[in-house]
Write a structure and sequence with these properties.
- The complex is a heterodimer of chains A (386) and B (124).
- By secondary structure, chain A is of the alpha+beta class.
- Helices cover 23% and strands 32% of the residues of chain A.
- Chain A is built from ten helices and 19 strands.
- Chain A has helices at 3-7, 15-20, 41-50, 73-85, 139-150, 172-177, 220-231, 241-250, 277-282, 288-297; strands spanning 24-28, 31-36, 52-56, 61-66, 100-106, 112-119, 129-134, 155-159, 162-168, 191-196, 199-204, 213-219, 236-238, 301-308, 319-321, 327-337, 342-350, 359-364, 367-374.
- A six-stranded mixed beta sheet of chain A has the order 10-11-12-9-3-13, sandwiched between helices. Chain A has a six-stranded antiparallel barrel with strand order 14-17-16-15-18-19.
- The radius of gyration of chain A is 21 Å and the shape is globular.
- Chain B is an alpha+beta fold and 124 residues long.
- Chain B has a single domain (2-103), classed as RNA polymerase II/Efflux pump adaptor protein, barrel-sandwich hybrid domain (OB fold (Dihydrolipoamide Acetyltransferase, E2P)), CATH 2.40.50.
- Helices cover 20% and strands 37% of the residues of chain B.
- In chain B, a hairpin with a 2-residue loop joins strand 2 (10-15) and strand 3 (18-23).
- The radius of gyration of chain B is 13 Å and the shape is globular.
- The relative contact order of chain B is 0.25.
- The chains are: A alpha+beta (386), B alpha+beta (124).
- Chain A binds chain B through residues 35-36, 40-43, 45, 242-243, 245-246, 311-313, 315, 335-336, 338, 343, 365, and chain B through 32-33, 35-36, 38, 54, 56-61, 80, 83.
């Protein structure tokens, strides 16, 4: 067996650009990705919150779920939405043309197989299709699962010829609208097919930083020129995975495989808002019996924000105790929040201790460090809602 | 003053019988922005290669090992409020701790300036 074959890292269409920009490359989800650029994680993070940062998220999975043509536009949408609803707890029937929604792929126990973004395209000719963006590490399993569950009734087209760029931060709108005027009117969690420099792109006003911004799906062969054009703007800097992680943690957003996984449900993960009202009444999603019972009866543990009161960061795996030395939980994401100016974390604790402000003790390298349950997000969200 | 280096990127500078220990500029470049340093208690007796400090960047925590054996006499309290001193002045004001050596002969086993520079070059 050729072991090298298995360890060969995949490259995104922006790989050469990362190297040219001095990116420090690390393996991530099977891809060779920049963890940071010469600016460094701290400054990259702060720059994104102050101006605009450009991220390569081409490693994520993009796909279109489509039902065969026939019937009215609304019937076609209802059909594809109904299919996706068999796998997720979201309401896609009522998703408006152009709108985007966060949802969860669930297993039969109500556990989270992945979190993903689902967009209903705006154009009439695209009704009956939903555009999916899933995590890089889980994309092969996700697509196999969707194909297996829905393959007889819908067609899953995996998009492999498009890169995905994220432009995030308060200046993102001015920078991007200058080359794509149609992007200006979009509100948070909406989408449009646009033309940038004559190239058709699919853009959503969304992101993973807590800031205003866009994700831009661009043909792979045009990705580098678009990235360079955005980077030419004085307000834009390239941002690596390191700052992407600290930005999303400050924004209280989950990282799949850490804060959520197959053993957490939308209820234990404090993502109840992702279970829409109609689905709570109707069920009909994997693990619905378990999840609906959890909604009714509560859960023994849940995800919360954690604010260490000292200076020491509490990393993933840090034990959480109550003030009487009893273990009550564990940290699932933790580090330093550059905009907060101190350590921040998320984790799972016994529900009895989940109220904001509850005193906690973190065991960091054998020493007790005080902490409190904190409300999420740690920073104000700056989404553009029109 | 004798200054020596370890393969784990600590430096140790001997002035009289007091040695000052820190991490090298090369190490700080690899770590990135340092946000926290866990310093050892004074009075603690340590052996060469013992874990004595932890230095944390935004991304991760890394151990700092004792370059030589001895007793900790002072920790750099300035790092508590200003850990970025390590980035700004790794081999001067960003020192971690001072120690009294139990065997100055251990320094002979470490690299001098030129040897460390060569070692770092070899890391690519």
């Amino acid at each position: 067996m050729d072991l090298m074959e298995n360890t060969t890292l995949r490259k995104t269409p922006l790989h050469d650009l990362h190297l040219a920009l001095g990116g420090k490359m690390v393996p991530f989800a099977g891809y060779d990705m920049p963890v940071q650029y010469p600016m460094g994680i701290m400054k990259e993070h702060l720059h994104t919150r102050a101006k605009a940062g450009l991220f390569d998220v081409s490693h994520m999975g993009q796909a279109v779920l489509k039902v065969p043509s026939g019937g009215s536009l609304e019937e076609r949408h209802t059909a594809v939405a109904g299919l996706l609803e068999r796998l997720t707890p979201g309401d896609f029937q009522n998703l408006k043309p152009g709108a985007m929604r966060y949802t969860l792929l669930l297993n039969e126990r109500g556990g989270i197989m992945d979190d993903l973004m689902v967009t209903r395209p705006a154009a009439e000719e695209e009704q009956g299709a939903l555009i999916l963006v899933v995590n890089a590490a889980t994309k092969d399993a996700d697509f196999a699962h969707i194909e297996n569950a829905l393959g007889g009734e819908a067609d899953l087209q995996i998009i492999t010829d498009h890169a995905l760029l994220a432009l995030q931060g308060p200046k993102a709108v001015d920078v991007f609208a200058a080359i794509c005027p149609d992007a200006k009117a979009l509100t948070f969690m909406t989408s449009a097919r646009v033309t940038v420099n004559g190239t058709p792109c699919f853009v959503t006003r969304s992101g993973y930083t807590g800031e205003d911004g866009y994700e831009i799906s661009v043909p792979s062969d045009k990705a580098e020129s678009l990235a360079r054009q955005l980077l030419d703007h004085e307000d834009v800097e390239p941002i690596g995975l390191g700052a992407r992680d600290s930005l999303r943690l400050e924004a209280g957003l989950c990282l799949y495989g850490h804060d959520i996984d197959a053993n957490t449900t939308p209820v234990t993960a404090s993502l109840k808002w992702a279970i829409s009202k109609r689905r709570r009444e109707e069920g009909g999603f994997p693990g619905d019996d378990i999840i609906l019972a959890q909604l009714k009866d509560g859960v023994p543990r849940q995800r919360v924000g954690i604010l260490p009161l000292g200076r020491a960061p509490a990393r993933e795996g840090t034990i959480i105790e109550d003030t009487n030395c009893h273990q009550i939980g564990i940290v699932t994401s933790g580090g330093f929040g550059p905009s907060v100016g101190g350590p921040i974390a998320m984790g799972y604790i016994d529900t009895a201790y989940a109220e904001v402000g509850t005193d906690l003790v973190l065991i960091i390298r054998g020493k007790e460090q005080p902490a409190k349950v904190a409300s999420l997000p740690f920073v104000q969200q700056n989404y553009y809602r029109g | 003053m004798t200054k020596k280096f370890t393969e784990d990127h600590e430096w140790v500078a001997l002035d009289g019988d007091v040695a000052t220990v820190g991490i090298t500029s090369y190490a700080t470049e690899q770590l990135g922005d340092i946000v926290y340093v866990e310093l050892p208690d004074t009075g603690r007796t340590i052996a060469a290669k013992d874990e004595v400090c932890v230095v944390e960047s935004v991304k991760a925590a890394s151990e700092v090992y004792a370059p030589v054996s001895g007793e900790i006499t002072e920790a750099n309290e300035a790092l508590a409020d200003n850990p970025s001193l390590v980035n700004d002045a790794a081999e001067t004001e960003g020192w971690f701790f001072k120690m009294k050596l139990s065997d100055a002969g251990e320094l002979d086993g470490l690299m001098d300036d030129a040897a460390y520079a060569e070692f770092v070059k070899g890391l690519g």
